[in-house]
Amino acid sequence: MTGPLAGIKVVELAQIMAGPTCGMLLADMGADVVKVEKLPGGDDTRAYSRPSVNGESAAFMMLNRNKRGIAVDLKKPGGLAVVKRLLEGADVVTENYRKGTLDRLGLSWEVLHALNPRLVYCAISGYGRTGPYADKGGFDLIAQGFAGLMSITGEPGGAPVKSGSPIADINAGVFAALGIVSALHARNATGRGQVVDTSLMEAAIQQTYWHSAIHLATGENPGPTGSAHLLTAPYQAFPTADGWINVGGANQSNWERIAKAIGREDLVADPRFRTNADRMRHLEELTPLVAERLRTRPSSEWIAEFEALGVPAGPINRIGDMLADPQVAAREMVVDLVHPVAGPTKALGFPVKFSETPARVERPSPLLGQHTREVLAGLGYDDGAIDRLAAEGAVALAPGT
Predict the structure, then answer these.
(1) Among residues 315, 338, 371, which one ends one of the domains?
(2) Number of structural domains found in the chain
(3) Residue 109 falls inside a structural domain
(4) Share of the chain above pLDDT 70, in %
């Protein structure tokens, strides 16, 4: 692997989404990520069979590319010994077990820190490893509700709505990766690893900057605003003659350009809309006036018109529209891989570009136990010892390996 984290060894004791997202980001940046899957069955997302490609879970393949994979039963002494030996030479371990689970297996932070003082131990949980909710499990939906996100999502007066994307899970994975690289940087000075502790709750709360600012300043609880912005207007989705577009009137000059584009320059001098504060107070009056004009022409014409005047505007794509966009292709956000069972597949690319140490997406997700023999051989196990571990169920080997 190449990239800014080349040479870093990561052991992923995590499954489903937040932990694997973190591991994927680290792997894309060049870390050697060994995904340790449980037995039996492996990562739970392997059972997410819809959609699948030749029987392989599309969800699993999306989040586990660029990793090597081994399958281990941590409840068997031989399996636990394998993981401990793996962790002796690792830089990072990630896990998202309930609090106390790894402690009971003999893989607590205290044990691992004594085994490998340079190890960075990253725990991703539902609510964090301290506090009254530390023992609770966590799921994205529950975190979104807890953090207030479902109270501010959707249309005014509607039922609570979660984000279409599992933002608590994904954001927790991003924060975990950020915490890990920060801890690795600190280790350069101290020579010692540390615990990196984040949660779905905190990852969801972080998404409420604007809304929390309003409540902390006023005591009010903001509600859902649909596509409209909390603090500036007009900044929302509008219907056109053939669909919908987003228009971003995020400041006074953009508002004046919008008024010019729609042929309603008179609105600029209207006392209801003269300043942003005025427009926010009279948003229910402003929105239909803008919408009335935008319904007269198709989306493509309005986007061209706004862009010519320097107004931020864009389409409201479906996922397929987005994936097929030439800008997405130019930024290498859709990449090609060849999976040993699924065959040619596509995945999302890495969202950060490095000028000197580029990230790479080159390896498809592993089959269950695909790299068990390879990884154990690297730890000093000979073929006979590996076969014995497999025979006793401590590890699993993919067919043909």
Answers:
(1) 315
(2) 2
(3) yes
(4) 100
31 pLDDT higher than 90? yes
Q: Note the pTM of the prediction, 2 decimals.
A: 0.95
**SS3 string of the chain?**
CCCCCCCCEEEEECCCCHHHHHHHHHHHCCCEEEEEEECCCCCHHHHCCCCEECCEEHHHHHHCCCCEEEEECCCCHHHHHHHHHHHHCCCEEEECCCCCHHHHHCCCHHHHHHHCCCCEEEEEECCCCCCCCCCCCCCHHHHHHHCCHHHCCCCCCCCCCCCCCCHHHHHHHHHHHHHHHHHHHHHHHHCCCCEEEEEHHHHHHHHHHHHHHHHHHHCCCCCCCCCCCCCCCCEEEEECCCCEEEEECCCHHHHHHHHHHCCCCHHHHCCCCCCHHHHHHCHHHHHHHHHHHHCCCCHHHHHHHHHHCCCCEEECCCHHHHHCCHHHHHCCCEEEEEECCCEEEEEECCCCCCCCCCCCCCCCCCCCCCCHHHHHHHCCCCHHHHHHHHHCCCEECCCCC
Looking at residues 270-287, what average pLDDT do you find? 98
Which of 215, 222, 96, 203 minimizes the C-alpha distance to 142?
203
**1: confidence class by pLDDT, cuts 50, 70, 90:** low
Residue 218: inside a domain, yes or no? no
Residue 88 and residue 38 share a domain: yes
* 216 belongs to a structural domain: no
Find out whether 120 and 183 touch, Cβ atoms under 8 Å.
yes
Active site residue 169: yes
- Checking if the pLDDT of 373 tops 80, the result is yes
Domain that holds residue 133: 9-207+326-396
- Check 169, 197, 278, 382 and give the catalytic one: 169
60-102: pLDDT as tens digits: 999 999 999 999 999 999 999 999 999 999 999 999 999 999 9
Residue 365, pLDDT score: 98
Residues 151-170: tens digit of each pLDDT: 999 999 999 999 999 999 99
